[in-house]
Write a structure and sequence with these properties.
Rossmann fold, 13 helices, 429 residues
Length: 429
């Protein structure tokens, strides 16, 4: 398989060309022939023109690549090595929603040939690849895993918005259903990963490694968020505390904030779900999730409290929220916890305007029913700096003064403005 790919006697396919899939497809396309597949024709047309619909990659990323962009599943027959990189979200009950990955498995299963490889990059709970996905591949292909085709798992580790830890510079964890497939899959990824490849001993080990990476971060951030609630009652600034504590060599530097997105805010639920299915209720994981999921509403309540303390009626107040993406310097709005801040304010009948330098107004409206404004409109009783986009890092107090009514309030979620706001009431986590 490896040599066939190198000689371009067959192709590699990438199913799902989002934040994860597209960068992988383009990196491979510099070395071998690639079929890039996505179910959304409008996104495919943009990529054919060298445009990343997610606004993460520049036009030059598409240069000197051997890739066919398509939304026709029949084109996948040209490939023998298939990588599935579709989202694995949760439903409204915070339970795993495997619909995208199972549908992708069905699509691949319909075109699967003897000798083919299928590698999953989508983050799942341990056991999902072999217990949930492989049966779908077998059912639609009428082939047997391990005998007729091989399966592996190699979790994505891309950090959107991070220009330093890019795809090729992050060690890749790979695995296969047997020794032969494990080695082939590792060698294929070594074509593009400069940082090297870690060969996990099994698919379950690789699945587990990925899911605890984000669960660990979630729990640590939850601890910081809990501390911020405690320190707020003490009248102590959390970021000042962390700055002081961080002078010790072994202090772990995590910070409070809103935890959303498609990874950290989702993956712990997958692990918790699997643990409960096995008869164990993971108290620490669930507690961390509860804390982090509560922070948006908490920030909203604190804003209302500050408005009331300023002698104003919340029902007659206006609040500007700056940033709605799930984190700084990205355009991705999926599972943004800023929305929880907005919902809490609206529940108190506060009028809310929202701006963001990168988010799509159409996507925000479609996903959340929120009208995204291009710029602030008039004066506000409070401004919430919710996401620390680079466009906001240089703003000074004069800027916020120009937006605020008398006795206006600055809510600084990430502590970006610490020490800069002196004329107005200032609050941060």
């Amino acid at each position: 398989m490896y040599n066939k790919l190198l000689k371009k006697e067959t192709k590699l396919s990438l199913i799902g060309l989002g934040y994860v899939g597209l960068p992988i497809a383009l990196e491979f396309a510099k070395k071998i022939s690639v079929v890039g597949f996505d179910i959304k024709p409008d996104r495919v047309e943009l990529m054919k023109k060298g445009i990343d619909p997610s606004n993460e990659l520049k036009a030059e990323a598409f240069s000197n690549t051997d890739i066919l962009f398509t939304s026709d599943p029949e084109d996948l027959r040209q490939a023998s090595f298939h990588i599935i990189a579709v989202p694995t979200p949760t439903n409204i009950y915070n339970l795993p929603d495997l619909t995208p990955v199972l549908k992708a498995s069905e699509t691949v299963g319909r075109i699967l040939k003897k000798g083919d490889y299928v590698v999953y990059e989508s983050t799942v709970y341990p056991g999902c690849t072999e217990e949930d996905c492989v049966p779908v591949l077998e059912r639609f292909s009428q082939l047997k895993c391990g005998t007729d085709f091989k399966v592996g798992f190699s979790p994505e580790r891309i950090n959107p918005g991070d220009q330093n830890h890019t795809l090729t510079k992050i060690v890749k964890v790979t695995s296969g259903c047997d020794a032969e497939s494990a080695e082939v899959i590792a060698k294929v990824y070594e074509l593009i990963i400069e940082a090297g490849v870690h060969r996990a001993s099994s698919i379950k080990v690789a699945e587990s490694a990925k899911i605890i990476e984000n669960t660990q971060r979630d729990i640590n951030i939850a601890f910081m968020n809990e501390l911020s609630i405690i320190f707020n009652r003490m009248g102590v600034n959390t970021f000042e505390v962390l700055e002081a504590a961080g002078t010790k060599w072994n202090f772990l530097k995590f910070y409070p904030g809103l935890v959303g997105g498609h990874c950290i805010g989702v993956d712990p639920y997958y692990l918790s779900y699997k643990a409960k299915a096995l008869g164990y209720h993971p108290q620490m994981i669930d507690s961390g999730r509860f804390t982090n999921d509560s922070m948006g509403r908490y920030i909203g309540k604190q804003t209302v409290k500050k408005i009331i303390a300023a002698g104003k009626n919340p029902t007659h107040s206006r609040v500007l929220i700056m940033g709605i993406t799930f984190k700084e310097n990205v355009t991705d709005i999926r599972n943004s916890k800023v929305v929880d801040v907005i919902k809490e304010l609206v529940d108190f009948s506060v009028a809310v305007d929202v701006i963001d330098p990168g988010a799509s107004a159409h996507e925000v409206k479609e996903e959340y029913g929120i009208e995204l404004m291009s710029e602030p409109n008039g004066k506000y009783d409070a401004v919430i700096l919710a996401v620390s986009h680079k466009e906001y890092t240089g703003l000074d107090e004069d800027y916020f003064s120009s937006l605020l009514n008398k006795d206006g309030i600055v809510i600084d979620v990430k502590g970006l403005l610490r020490g800069k706001i002196r004329k107005h009431t200032y609050w941060s986590l």
